[in-house]
Write a structure and sequence with these properties.
Layout: E1 5-8, E2 11-14, E3 29-32, E4 40-45, E5 50-55, E6 58-61, E7 70-73, E8 78-83, E9 91-97, E10 102-106, E11 109-112, E12 128-131, E13 135-139, E14 145-147, H1 151-157, H2 162-171, H3 179-191
């Protein structure tokens, strides 16, 4: 069973009592969780970095095992990939491009404690979940994983494609915080 409580200052709060949401989307969607398993309704908890699923009216958590390393949601089409790194890119990420160089987006949510007002003129700040800016990274052909931050670092990560990438950047205004721009960039890298 999924624990939906957070305890701070010896006070237990349920997710519903906290402003915001730990979920990418609160709804459950049918997904293929492994090759030899039936499709089940799932959702992603970006605070705990867990895939939750429903079975017989209960909400359970998929174990972080290699057989559950590719979660394919049917509609809306979305794929979660489990990375076993121990750094900030470990855990589940959303696959944006699957190719010889694959693009992923890591979404994290943090919990902000309740803060009492400093004085009678100020107001309390409720406990909340805050989704952080996503981290985009690419898994290269050689298996190495590199964060995509800017043009300069991208050129350094692909020295053999420096010339074609420079031309691409000059003719395309790529923003490194937009899915569609980074998908376009990754597809270009894969074609050249």
């Amino acid at each position: 069973m999924v624990d939906k409580h957070i305890i701070f200052n010896f006070i237990s709060l349920t997710y519903d009592e906290i402003k915001g949401s730990p979920y990418l989307d609160k709804a459950f969607y049918k997904a293929k969780v492994a090759n030899d398993y039936e499709e089940v309704p799932v959702r992603y908890n970006s605070y705990k970095d867990e895939i939750e699923f429903q079975k017989e009216g209960k909400i359970l958590v998929l174990p972080k095992e290699s057989k559950f390393s590719r979660i394919e949601i049917k509609s809306p089409k979305q794929t979660f990939i489990l990375f076993e790194n121990k750094d900030d890119l470990g855990g589940y990420s959303i696959e944006l491009v699957n190719g010889k160089n694959s693009l992923y987006k890591k979404i994290k949510t943090v919990f902000k404690d309740f803060v009492s007002a400093a004085n009678s003129y100020a107001s309390d700040t409720p406990a909340s979940f805050k989704t952080q800016d996503p981290i985009y990274f690419i898994k290269k052909e050689d298996g190495s994983i590199k964060k995509l931050k800017n043009q300069k670092e991208t050129l350094e990560q692909f020295p053999d494609k420096k010339e074609v990438l420079s031309t691409f950047f000059k003719s395309n205004k790529i923003k490194f915080d937009r899915d569609e721009d980074l998908i376009k960039l990754t597809n270009f890298i894969n074609q050249n």
